[in-house]
Structure prediction request, 353 residues.
Amino acid sequence: MKVLSVLYSGGQTAINEPRLLGTIENKLGLTEWLQARGHELVVTDDKEGADSDFQKEIVDADVLITTPFHPAYVTREIISKAKNLKLCITAGVGSDHIDLNAAIERHITVAEVTGSNVVSVAEHVVMSILLLVRNFVPAHEMIERGDWQVSDIARNAYDLENKVVGTIGAGRIGYRVLQRLVPFNCKELLYYDYNELPADAAKAVGACRVASLECDVVTINCPLYESTRNLINRDTLKHFKKGAWLVNTARGAICDRNAVKEALESGQLNGYSGDVWDVQPAPRDHPLRTAKNPLGGGNGMVPHYSGTTLDAQKRYAEGAKDILERFLDGKAQEPQNVIVDGGAYITKTYGQR
Ligand code: NAI
Prediction:
């Protein structure tokens, strides 16, 4: 079998730190194990354009392993070229970089390491909410500059206590965010999701299910697919509470980048934070790298790393190996890991179908 994996280049850092498993240097720890079993492993970070290693090597690959952090975009056109492709493994969570409908038509299995980094992301969400609400980033920048003007920071710093926080999506990450917010004594914890939380789970965090979100803080924790692409746009942003904070660690393309920038600049949003970008790596001139609110703060954007802590990398590398081993041994996959299989969606997460 030929296994192709598209990972990011970690350079000397990844050579010095072998726990950076999601890099081309450390290859998810698969090299010796796959070679001992007589299979071929090709690893590359070169993923854009017809001349890229990815597009050349996919033509006869049996298995493709990708990550959401340096996504190889597996379009319908690429699937049509990949004549031998039987399995796409996402080392992580979120397989929107694969055209799932095209994979279904070709009866390609798409599996991901469900749950592998959900705590990592939930912690990042709570951090992002706090850094926006408390106006942390400009405060730190002021200190680095050598300045000290408390009023310039305090004029836009609040407590999280007594605020209304809502999540779009209350699955593994969304629910863990709600759990972690309980001790902050928020006024209300709300969730918007077509899948209802079990009553005891909702009660345990005091969360109410709502049909629309009118919140101080909105956190996005649903997958990217047809009906969530551009869910946050000029029109929906008008219905946000004035001065709300928005955290997106789900996927960049759920938010219209220019609409978010305009909402920040006008003060309709007081802050935007997260780690996901519509196309990754984000171009240097991506508007959300630098967009600010009228008081010069409100931007907590970082590169896509919330779900790729060293702890998470260990879990998703082991999980990807398990999925691959099951496939090579002809064993059934763990049901919760299967996104599409046998010509159909298996997951209930990518919309009501
Ligand atoms: P999950 O499958 O456990 O939960 C997703 C929830 O979203 C489900 O309850 C589903 O019903 C709900 N949902 C789907 N469409 C919706 C819609 N239109 N409106 C409201 N709710 C909707 O998935 P999990 O593990 O919580 O991950 C969620 C997403 O987070 C992933 O799909 C991925 O895009 C992103 N993610 C980001 C990471 C990062 O490093 N930034 C790492 C891991 C996941």
Q: What stands out?
A: The chain has a mean pLDDT of 98.
